[in-house]
Amino acid sequence: MNKKYIGSSFDDFLEEEGLLAEVETVALKRVVAFQISQLMQSRNISKTAMAKRMKTSRAALERLLDPENGSVTLQTLERAALALGKRLQIDLVNLSGQKHRSVASTRRLQRAGQARA
């Protein structure tokens, strides 16, 4: 084991390896896909009905719900939010005191999304 990483956080390791931004992006996409899927399920909205509400194809909805597919547009996210009676909100926040949002904070966002659903 490389002693360089003993005592450092996992985020520090990922940042040093140049992977932190990519990991956080994947984690955030998973959270969003999970939230949309959970809202659809709680409201008994099928994928076909959701695609129709979004005025998009079922294939586009599948891409949105695929946690591994990061090629989602803001327009698609907005359509999904509106179709579920929600509003999309994206904020740029100061890093003040923290380098990046950690994967742990992304998990907290996921749990908060579950509680709101």
Summarize the structure.
By secondary structure, the protein is mainly α.
Polypeptide structure, described:
This protein has six helices and no strands. It starts with 9 loop residues before the first helix and ends with a helix. It has 117 residues and is an all-alpha fold. The protein has helices at 10-16, 20-42, 47-54, 58-65, 74-83, 103-116. The protein has a single domain, classed as 434 Repressor (Amino-terminal Domain), CATH 1.10.260.40.
Question: Average pLDDT across residues?
Answer: 81
Structural class: mainly alpha
Into which percentage range does the β-strand content fall?
under 5%
Instruction: Examine the secondary-structure arrangement and name the CATH architecture.
Output: Orthogonal Bundle
Top-tier CATH class: Mainly Alpha
Order of helices and strands: HHHHHH
Number-wise, the strands total: 0
**What is the number of helices?**
6
Shape: elongated
Total of domains: 1
The stretches of 5 or more residues where confidence is low (pLDDT under 50) are none
Cα-atom radius of gyration: 17 Å
**Helicity range:** 55-70%
Output the CATH homologous superfamily. Answer: lambda repressor-like DNA-binding domains
Largest sheet: none
CATH topology: 434 Repressor (Amino-terminal Domain)
